[in-house]
Amino acid sequence: MALGLFKRLVPANRTAALRDAVAGVVFASMDIPQLLGYARIAGMPPVAGLYTGLLPIFAFALCGSSPNLVVAADSATATIFAGKLSMMAAPGSPQYIALAGMTALLTALMLLIARIFRLGFLADFLSRTVLVGFLAGVGVQVGVAMLGDMLGIPISSRLTLRQIAQVAAHLSTAHWPTVALSALVVATILLFKHYRPRWPFALAAVVIGIGSSATWNFAGHGIAVIGPLHVGFPRLRLLGIRWPQVLDLMQVAAACFVVVVAQSAATSRAFAERHGARVDEDADLLGLAMANAAAAVSGAFVVNGSPTQTAMADQAGARSQLAQLTLAAIVVVVLLFLGRWLQYLPQCVLAAVVFTIAVGLVAVGQLNEIRRESPGEFALALATAATVVVAGVENGILVAIGLSLLRHVRHSYRPHTMVLAPNDDGRWEPRPSKAGLETAPGLIIYRFGADLFYANEHLFVDEVRRLIDAAPEPVRRFVIDAAAITDLDYSAGRSVNALCQELAGRGIEILFARVNPYLRADMDRHGVTAVIGANHVYRTLHEALAGTQGFRQGEAL
């Protein structure tokens, strides 16, 4: 265990360690402005964003399993709790900070429970399609939220559609120097991101913005700045929170928990596959729990395995958690020596940096791939994104989970079904099931492409009857190719029994082929074997067809 920890923290040789340390410096130059921006999204003081890159980084490095995952502030989770907390306290106030800390602590508790019960598999219930749509919706929501600071227009609502309405209504009052500065920062960052993605221009924009603001007194010319900050190391304590408030925070913590589990697992898996590494989702749950607990007691907020920051670290050349620890060390330097300069940072520059982050969350290329390959899944992604924009992130993540499960259930509810039928050469081949098909005179071989359960039993029964009734020749033998059926529940068992008894009464012999041990156990338990006879249940299709007239046609399969 200690050896595995050492490998994740420090590479095996000095050259690789030096590479990761340098990568950590490059990564910090790109990431520190984003941490400040994420704090802005979360409604926290900018310094709280830096806190997420300190103790939480150490906690995950010590307890997690992924060598690549960056666990710090993230726009998705920041947006989730900001909407709720802003209704309970003024953003940036001591009470708001305490509520954010309690949300992180509750999230950590849920993650710890998930680790104890080994619930890492929960990440599988968010499909990649709806996750892309969810992040796109978050990107739109965050981008719209930044428009007020970028245009110098006050925005009071937390709802995206109302924010758009407020911006449109007050567009004529925009502060044009602020607009020009915002546009310059956005255009330059996006330009450099496209042509020189490894150049830390986001950091350069922040540094230039701070220097220019301090030199030419931007605040005196109507360009809003962050103002004085209480910079220094965080206080390791939580302010008092009342129990009714804790109960109110449970829902938002649950939403954060789902996003943290799904997004962190998806990110760690993606980069592990890229570099041929292995990760343990349950170990990562412990690391994420400890990271959020560290955030809770250090004046920070919910942290997450960030896909954008992990991609930035990977792009910088990081291959171990040493790069993330280097980031934490640089954050310490900033807190000790450079914090006082942050008060001169123009809010529009910070908002512009966040806006470019939001643009990056809308994966247009990936959405186009989904649209080309699966229009139905593309519709699901758009529905998820629209829900996030219209109804908020909390509802969006619930819809994302619901749509993911609905998509899975739909495949089971209406599976692909086929009939083996002769082609022009007389060879049997699987064809989509439809009335009038037969395998050979008097014989139908029917494939059902999912488990049989209460929701699809009627489809199975109705289709079998329809195939038999519409067959060109009277059916004497009906073979069910059960290769895809691994489970038979009580309701389906009753329906299959009734169907087999009905067909036996019509003189039709029913056989089950390619029956696996799990299905055979269910058939025995629900009485299907007794109805059709044990000698009508076969492990292979060839065994089932051995005595069937015309079998020679099927041997080519």
Question: How would you sum up this structure, described in words?
Answer:
- This protein is mostly helical and 557 residues long.
- The chain folds into 2 domains: 2-156 and 163-409, no CATH class; 415-554, STAS domain (Transcription Regulator spoIIAA).
- It has helices at residues 2-9, 14-42, 46-51, 55-63, 75-85, 94-116, 128-151, 160-169, 176-195, 201-216, 243-275, 281-296, 307-316, 322-338, 347-361, 364-373, 375-391, 393-413, 457-469, 490-505, 517-525, 528-532, 541-545, 551-554, and strands spanning 71-72, 304-305, 417-422, 428-432, 443-448, 477-481, 509-513.
- α7 (128-151) runs antiparallel to α18 (393-413).
- It starts with a helix and ends with a helix.
User: What's the number of structural domains?
Assistant: 2
Q: Please report the number of helical segments.
A: 24
The major sheet is characterized as: 5 strands, mixed
Structural class: mainly alpha
How much helical structure, as a percent, in the residues? 55-70%
Shape label:
elongated
Q: What is the average per-residue confidence, as pLDDT, rounded to a whole number?
A: 86
Q: Spans of 5+ residues with little confidence (pLDDT < 50)? A: 1-7, 551-557
What topology does this entry show?
Blueprint: H1 2-9, H2 14-42, H3 46-51, H4 55-63, E1 71-72, H5 75-85, H6 94-116, H7 128-151, H8 160-169, H9 176-195, H10 201-216, H11 243-275, H12 281-296, E2 304-305, H13 307-316, H14 322-338, H15 347-361, H16 364-373, H17 375-391, H18 393-413, E3 417-422, E4 428-432, E5 443-448, H19 457-469, E6 477-481, H20 490-505, E7 509-513, H21 517-525, H22 528-532, H23 541-545, H24 551-554
Parallel strand pairs: 5-6, 6-7
Antiparallel strand pairs: 1-2, 3-4, 3-5
